[in-house]
Amino acid sequence: MDGQLQNALEKWMSKPEEDQKLNYQNVIQHFIATLEMTIKNVNSVQIYSGNQLFYSANFNRADIDYENFEQDEWYKKTVQRKGAIVIFGTHTPFHKMNSTEKVISIARVINKTGGKQPLGVMLVDIRLDSLSEILNLSENTKRNFVITDQTGAIIYASNNLDISKPLQMDRQVFSKVLNEQSGSFNTTFAAHSSYLNFVTSPYSGWKVIQYMDEKEMTKDSALLSTIILALAVGSIGMAVLFMIIMRSRVTEPIIFLKRQVEKVGMGNFDVDLGSTRRDEFGVLYQGLRKMVEELQNYIERSSRAIVQQKVARLGALKSQINPHFLANTLESVQMKAILSGDREIAEMVGTLGQLFRIHTQMSKDIIPLHQELEHIRLYVKVQQMRFGDKIQYVENLAPDTESLQVVHFSLQPLIENAIIHGLERQVGAGLLEVSSTLSENLLLITIRDNGTGVSHEQLLNLQQRISNHSDVDMDSHIGLINVNERIRLYFGEQYGIYIHSELGEGTTITIRLPALPYRL
């Protein structure tokens, strides 16, 4: 069954708004029109859903009376079969008033996709004269045909038999026709001594009876087998049509989706998931396409982060030159400076020793903010000893932020960048401020200087390098890109560093992190 039809019927029954209601009605009418054009000799297609009847475009609305259709015997019988096909013999259209045409009807319940909840009933009326076309009877043939249902009621007769009455023949012969699958008899039928053949359709259970005068029975002996084959092909053709519709709507999309998933499983992300489908498969295609894109981005991001982490470690090794040895050596130099009475040199060497000691003792990638600030204060103190009063350092920290998580060694490269590229180049004293705030589950750390700043073009170039993962000044220190990438690797793509600068006004770098408490 068409998934779009089932979806439209389900939405229709949920009583949507008028504009949506028209869209679902168009989908149902399109299905009816398609079925009428696809299956030959269809008189009409009707779909009953709730208290609504959807019908063929060739119906005259004034001729239709479908009130209380749920009480009709054909409707009750179809509902009782719960989705199985029900065939009704010759009759006038059930809800077409003043009609004299004869039709055969096929009905079934339309269930919800993947379940047994009924959404409606579909009724297909087939013109009675289409049986003549299937049997391919000429006007002057001597062979006559009768088609009956399982009870012997006449569905179709090629002569003038009264189809409103049961089949009239010898009681014993009639019993064999009803109870056996096929056979042949010499009997009196329709007031003539006739040779009678019959066969039962395995699909519908109908009986196809051929009878002819004994004088004519030898003329076209091969016709019966041809008719049986044609009728069987016609019955099978209708079943195949339903199978083709189901395959195109359900089976083929599942096979296609399976192949694409297998390609992704083998590491091939070049999959074709473009689809204009609006049913459940369209949702699946869209979800899988998004998942593949996110997986591919994650792999690329992780690969870059691993490479940059190795580069950062190499840079750290190059710059540290055995920090344990340097820390111990600086302590020795400090003691000699104290013994020599040079307090200023002793303080500077002692601060450098503490800086190296902190760096060697911290092995974790995630630390609380207050530990990262200890590192920064020592680093700034060394720079103040170097530049004197040229650098003023201020902290403005919001309560409860110093216990939140930050990436280790993420502030020092930014402080170093502010001093070298901002404050060192300007004339006069410079201000370096570190502040922290909380905003909607976010920890915002701001590093602000009043140095030389950069031009608008230089700022755009720097932002583009960070966005495109291009390294910035990696030869002299761990770059801004490394800090940004490590933050995104640990916390996600929505976090990182953001830069604002104006020439002659200074630079502001904001670190955006999730407000997560640090736990040992």
UniProtKB/TrEMBL annotation:
Residue ranges annotated for the HAMP domain, each copy included: 248-300
Keyword NADP among UniProt keywords: no
Keywords, ordered alphabetically: ATP-binding, Cell membrane, Kinase, Membrane, Nucleotide-binding, Phosphoprotein, Transferase, Transmembrane, Transmembrane helix, Two-component regulatory system
Residues spanning the membrane: 222-246
Topology versus the membrane: Multi-pass membrane protein
GO molecular function, one term: ATP binding
Enzyme Commission no: 2.7.13.3
CDD domains attached to this UniProt entry: HAMP
Signal peptide positions on this chain: none
GO cellular component, as recorded: plasma membrane
Record's catalysed reaction(s): ATP + protein L-histidine = ADP + protein N-phospho-L-histidine
Location(s), subcellular: Cell membrane
PANTHER family to which the protein is assigned, alphabetical: SENSOR HISTIDINE KINASE YPDA, SENSOR PROTEIN KINASE HPTS
Record's protein name: histidine kinase
